[in-house]
Design the sequence.
């Protein structure tokens, strides 16, 4: 969507849940020795746009989106990394019950590892061998006053819809309460249309030969 739609308002790409799992798995060893990232080259491949279908290298975008599973493994949130501003925005659809330390523990590993991945991939370059400022983690900002889920099971659809509304710069137009049934239906329609368009594209390519 972000890569091909002319209606999208920002230059963005995304990771997937596997990226988040690898960040969490690497984090504790990373805290002891940052060299551990050399053993996680797959993380760098996400940054340069090689590990996820239809993804874009981070140097070609201004924003990167991350679906993040909280340590309790019971709730999904969305993070948005503003590369130029070095800000990490967090969108949480259950602010009444999932908050504070739970959100910090979910986002902290990503915020600390991102600068190292940007340097390893060559997108950020230290000014000198003693440049520690470039390794400072992005500031974390919890976004308030956003549409909230009314039960304990709709966090995943909220992550997807937050991302979609952000791409079109329409987050504030998400109605409260948000119609999750319609959102599920809308996602099913989009997936069907995407599959249909891909099949048509393959058919057109074969016909062109």
Sequence:
């Amino acid at each position: 969507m972000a890569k091909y739609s002319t209606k999208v308002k920002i230059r963005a790409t995304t990771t997937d849940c596997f990226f988040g799992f690898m960040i969490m798995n690497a984090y504790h060893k990373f805290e002891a020795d940052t060299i551990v990232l050399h053993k996680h080259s797959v993380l760098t491949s996400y940054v340069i746009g090689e590990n996820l279908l239809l993804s874009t290298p981070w140097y070609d975008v201004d924003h990167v989106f991350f679906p993040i599973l909280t340590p309790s493994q019971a709730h999904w949130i969305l993070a948005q990394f503003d590369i130029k501003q070095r800000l990490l925005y967090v969108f949480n659809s259950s602010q009444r019950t999932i908050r504070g330390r739970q959100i910090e523990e979910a986002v902290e590993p990503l915020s600390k590892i991102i600068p190292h991945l940007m340097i390893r991939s060559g997108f950020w370059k230290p000014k000198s061998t003693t440049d520690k400022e470039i390794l400072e983690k992005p500031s974390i900002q919890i976004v308030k006053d956003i549409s909230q889920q009314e039960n304990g099971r709709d966090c995943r659809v909220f992550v997807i819809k937050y991302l979609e509304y952000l791409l079109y710069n329409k987050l504030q137009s998400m109605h409260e309460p948000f119609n999750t049934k319609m959102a599920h239906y809308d996602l099913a329609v989009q997936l069907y249309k995407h599959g249909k368009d891909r099949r048509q594209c393959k058919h057109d390519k074969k016909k062109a030969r």
